[in-house]
Design goal:
mainly alpha, 8 helices, two-stranded antiparallel sheet, flat, 6% strand, 222 residues, 2 strands
Length: 222
Protein backbone atom coordinates (compact mmCIF):
# COMPACT_ATOMS: atom_id res chain seq x y z
CA UNK A 1 0.00 0.00 0.00
CA UNK A 2 1.00 3.65 -0.23
CA UNK A 3 1.32 3.88 3.56
CA UNK A 4 3.49 0.77 3.79
CA UNK A 5 5.89 2.21 1.24
CA UNK A 6 6.53 5.23 3.47
CA UNK A 7 7.40 3.19 6.58
CA UNK A 8 10.88 3.80 7.95
CA UNK A 9 11.53 7.07 6.12
CA UNK A 10 13.30 9.82 8.06
CA UNK A 11 12.82 13.57 8.11
CA UNK A 12 14.21 15.18 4.95
CA UNK A 13 14.28 11.94 2.95
CA UNK A 14 12.71 11.62 -0.49
CA UNK A 15 11.46 8.37 -1.97
CA UNK A 16 10.55 7.49 -5.56
CA UNK A 17 8.40 4.41 -5.87
CA UNK A 18 5.61 2.81 -7.86
CA UNK A 19 2.30 1.57 -6.52
CA UNK A 20 0.42 -1.06 -8.51
CA UNK A 21 -3.35 -0.71 -8.53
CA UNK A 22 -5.37 -3.91 -7.84
CA UNK A 23 -6.30 -6.01 -10.84
CA UNK A 24 -9.93 -5.93 -9.75
CA UNK A 25 -10.68 -2.28 -9.14
CA UNK A 26 -14.27 -1.07 -9.33
CA UNK A 27 -15.30 1.95 -11.39
CA UNK A 28 -11.91 3.10 -12.72
CA UNK A 29 -9.78 2.54 -15.78
CA UNK A 30 -6.68 2.06 -13.61
CA UNK A 31 -7.06 -1.63 -12.75
CA UNK A 32 -3.68 -3.36 -12.81
CA UNK A 33 -1.76 -0.21 -13.74
CA UNK A 34 1.10 1.41 -11.87
CA UNK A 35 1.29 4.90 -10.38
CA UNK A 36 4.65 6.65 -9.93
CA UNK A 37 4.89 8.40 -6.55
CA UNK A 38 7.45 10.81 -5.18
CA UNK A 39 7.31 11.42 -1.45
CA UNK A 40 9.32 13.82 0.71
CA UNK A 41 9.12 13.70 4.52
CA UNK A 42 9.10 17.31 5.70
CA UNK A 43 8.33 16.64 9.35
CA UNK A 44 7.71 13.70 11.68
CA UNK A 45 5.25 14.13 14.51
CA UNK A 46 4.46 11.86 17.42
CA UNK A 47 0.88 11.52 18.57
CA UNK A 48 0.39 11.78 22.32
CA UNK A 49 -2.90 10.34 23.49
CA UNK A 50 -4.77 12.09 26.34
CA UNK A 51 -6.14 10.36 29.41
CA UNK A 52 -9.53 8.82 28.66
CA UNK A 53 -11.65 10.20 31.50
CA UNK A 54 -14.60 12.53 32.16
CA UNK A 55 -12.52 15.58 31.18
CA UNK A 56 -11.71 13.91 27.87
CA UNK A 57 -15.43 13.27 27.31
CA UNK A 58 -16.28 16.93 28.01
CA UNK A 59 -13.55 18.14 25.65
CA UNK A 60 -15.19 16.25 22.81
CA UNK A 61 -17.81 19.01 22.69
CA UNK A 62 -20.75 16.66 22.10
CA UNK A 63 -24.12 17.93 23.30
CA UNK A 64 -25.33 15.99 26.32
CA UNK A 65 -22.00 14.20 26.86
CA UNK A 66 -20.35 15.17 30.14
CA UNK A 67 -18.93 11.86 31.40
CA UNK A 68 -16.93 8.95 30.04
CA UNK A 69 -19.85 6.47 30.32
CA UNK A 70 -22.04 8.92 28.38
CA UNK A 71 -19.37 9.18 25.70
CA UNK A 72 -19.16 5.40 25.41
CA UNK A 73 -22.95 5.19 25.05
CA UNK A 74 -22.85 7.87 22.35
CA UNK A 75 -20.13 6.03 20.43
CA UNK A 76 -22.04 2.74 20.74
CA UNK A 77 -25.21 4.40 19.39
CA UNK A 78 -23.31 5.97 16.49
CA UNK A 79 -21.66 2.66 15.56
CA UNK A 80 -25.00 0.85 15.70
CA UNK A 81 -26.63 3.46 13.48
CA UNK A 82 -23.70 3.32 11.03
CA UNK A 83 -24.02 -0.47 10.78
CA UNK A 84 -27.78 -0.22 10.23
CA UNK A 85 -27.31 2.45 7.56
CA UNK A 86 -24.73 0.31 5.80
CA UNK A 87 -27.09 -2.68 5.80
CA UNK A 88 -29.88 -0.50 4.39
CA UNK A 89 -27.59 0.79 1.64
CA UNK A 90 -26.53 -2.74 0.66
CA UNK A 91 -30.15 -3.92 0.59
CA UNK A 92 -31.29 -0.92 -1.45
CA UNK A 93 -28.43 -1.44 -3.91
CA UNK A 94 -29.46 -5.07 -4.43
CA UNK A 95 -33.09 -4.03 -4.75
CA UNK A 96 -32.35 -1.44 -7.43
CA UNK A 97 -30.50 -4.08 -9.45
CA UNK A 98 -33.55 -6.34 -9.27
CA UNK A 99 -35.84 -3.49 -10.32
CA UNK A 100 -33.59 -2.57 -13.24
CA UNK A 101 -33.69 -6.16 -14.49
CA UNK A 102 -37.48 -6.37 -14.23
CA UNK A 103 -38.07 -3.96 -17.10
CA UNK A 104 -37.04 -4.06 -20.74
CA UNK A 105 -36.78 -0.36 -21.57
CA UNK A 106 -34.07 1.76 -23.12
CA UNK A 107 -32.65 4.25 -20.67
CA UNK A 108 -32.79 7.84 -22.05
CA UNK A 109 -29.30 8.80 -23.22
CA UNK A 110 -29.39 12.21 -21.53
CA UNK A 111 -30.11 10.61 -18.14
CA UNK A 112 -27.39 8.01 -18.67
CA UNK A 113 -24.80 10.66 -19.58
CA UNK A 114 -25.72 12.66 -16.50
CA UNK A 115 -25.32 9.57 -14.33
CA UNK A 116 -21.92 8.83 -15.90
CA UNK A 117 -20.82 12.43 -15.31
CA UNK A 118 -21.92 12.19 -11.67
CA UNK A 119 -19.86 9.04 -11.18
CA UNK A 120 -16.75 10.63 -12.67
CA UNK A 121 -17.22 13.74 -10.54
CA UNK A 122 -17.66 11.62 -7.40
CA UNK A 123 -14.39 9.82 -8.15
CA UNK A 124 -12.62 13.14 -8.80
CA UNK A 125 -13.78 14.47 -5.44
CA UNK A 126 -12.73 11.25 -3.71
CA UNK A 127 -9.19 11.59 -5.08
CA UNK A 128 -9.22 15.26 -4.09
CA UNK A 129 -10.03 14.39 -0.48
CA UNK A 130 -6.96 12.17 -0.49
CA UNK A 131 -4.80 15.03 -1.75
CA UNK A 132 -4.40 13.56 -5.24
CA UNK A 133 -4.84 15.61 -8.43
CA UNK A 134 -7.35 13.82 -10.63
CA UNK A 135 -6.08 15.45 -13.84
CA UNK A 136 -2.48 14.48 -13.16
CA UNK A 137 -3.34 10.83 -12.58
CA UNK A 138 -3.54 10.22 -16.32
CA UNK A 139 -7.05 8.77 -16.41
CA UNK A 140 -8.57 8.13 -19.83
CA UNK A 141 -11.94 9.87 -19.48
CA UNK A 142 -13.31 8.16 -22.59
CA UNK A 143 -12.42 4.74 -21.18
CA UNK A 144 -13.94 5.67 -17.83
CA UNK A 145 -17.18 6.71 -19.51
CA UNK A 146 -17.37 3.35 -21.27
CA UNK A 147 -16.76 1.48 -18.02
CA UNK A 148 -19.36 3.47 -16.12
CA UNK A 149 -22.06 3.40 -18.80
CA UNK A 150 -23.50 -0.14 -18.18
CA UNK A 151 -23.96 0.61 -14.47
CA UNK A 152 -25.34 4.05 -15.28
CA UNK A 153 -27.91 2.53 -17.64
CA UNK A 154 -28.96 0.06 -14.94
CA UNK A 155 -29.25 2.89 -12.38
CA UNK A 156 -31.41 4.95 -14.75
CA UNK A 157 -33.75 2.04 -15.49
CA UNK A 158 -34.13 1.43 -11.75
CA UNK A 159 -34.80 5.15 -11.19
CA UNK A 160 -37.54 5.11 -13.83
CA UNK A 161 -39.19 2.12 -12.17
CA UNK A 162 -38.98 3.77 -8.74
CA UNK A 163 -40.39 6.99 -10.15
CA UNK A 164 -43.38 5.14 -11.59
CA UNK A 165 -43.98 3.32 -8.32
CA UNK A 166 -43.81 6.63 -6.45
CA UNK A 167 -46.35 8.13 -8.85
CA UNK A 168 -48.69 5.13 -8.54
CA UNK A 169 -48.51 5.23 -4.73
CA UNK A 170 -48.61 9.06 -4.52
CA UNK A 171 -45.32 9.18 -2.62
CA UNK A 172 -44.25 12.77 -2.08
CA UNK A 173 -41.58 14.59 -0.09
CA UNK A 174 -42.94 17.17 2.34
CA UNK A 175 -41.26 20.25 3.80
CA UNK A 176 -41.11 18.34 7.09
CA UNK A 177 -39.20 15.49 5.40
CA UNK A 178 -36.62 17.94 4.07
CA UNK A 179 -36.29 19.69 7.43
CA UNK A 180 -35.77 16.37 9.19
CA UNK A 181 -33.10 15.41 6.66
CA UNK A 182 -31.22 18.64 7.31
CA UNK A 183 -31.48 18.05 11.06
CA UNK A 184 -29.97 14.57 10.65
CA UNK A 185 -27.24 15.89 8.34
CA UNK A 186 -26.44 18.58 10.91
CA UNK A 187 -26.01 15.93 13.62
CA UNK A 188 -23.89 13.73 11.34
CA UNK A 189 -21.60 16.44 9.94
CA UNK A 190 -21.47 18.82 12.90
CA UNK A 191 -22.62 21.76 10.77
CA UNK A 192 -25.48 24.18 11.56
CA UNK A 193 -28.71 23.48 9.69
CA UNK A 194 -28.76 26.93 8.10
CA UNK A 195 -25.23 26.50 6.76
CA UNK A 196 -26.21 23.21 5.12
CA UNK A 197 -29.38 24.73 3.67
CA UNK A 198 -27.45 27.68 2.20
CA UNK A 199 -24.92 25.29 0.65
CA UNK A 200 -27.60 23.13 -0.98
CA UNK A 201 -29.46 26.18 -2.29
CA UNK A 202 -26.35 27.93 -3.62
CA UNK A 203 -25.11 24.76 -5.33
CA UNK A 204 -28.51 23.99 -6.85
CA UNK A 205 -28.77 20.69 -4.95
CA UNK A 206 -32.21 21.05 -3.40
CA UNK A 207 -33.96 19.15 -6.18
CA UNK A 208 -31.37 16.35 -5.94
CA UNK A 209 -32.02 16.17 -2.20
CA UNK A 210 -35.77 16.04 -2.72
CA UNK A 211 -35.49 13.31 -5.37
CA UNK A 212 -33.14 11.30 -3.19
CA UNK A 213 -35.61 11.44 -0.31
CA UNK A 214 -38.45 10.43 -2.65
CA UNK A 215 -36.49 7.42 -3.87
CA UNK A 216 -35.63 6.53 -0.27
CA UNK A 217 -39.29 6.64 0.76
CA UNK A 218 -40.20 4.50 -2.23
CA UNK A 219 -37.55 1.90 -1.36
CA UNK A 220 -38.75 1.87 2.24
CA UNK A 221 -42.30 1.25 1.03
CA UNK A 222 -41.15 -1.63 -1.19
Amino acid sequence: TIEAGRAGMKEGETDDSQVNMPERLDDTGMAGKGIALKTTVNEIRKRELPEVDDDFAKDMGIDGVETLPALKDKIRQDLTKAAEDQNDQMFNKQLTVILANLVDIEAPSAMVEREVANKIEAMRQNFGRQGMDFKKMGFDIGMMRNRFRPQAESNVRAALVLDQIARDRNIEVSAEDIEQEFQEMSADYGQPVEVLKDYYKNEGLMENLREGLRIGKTLDMI
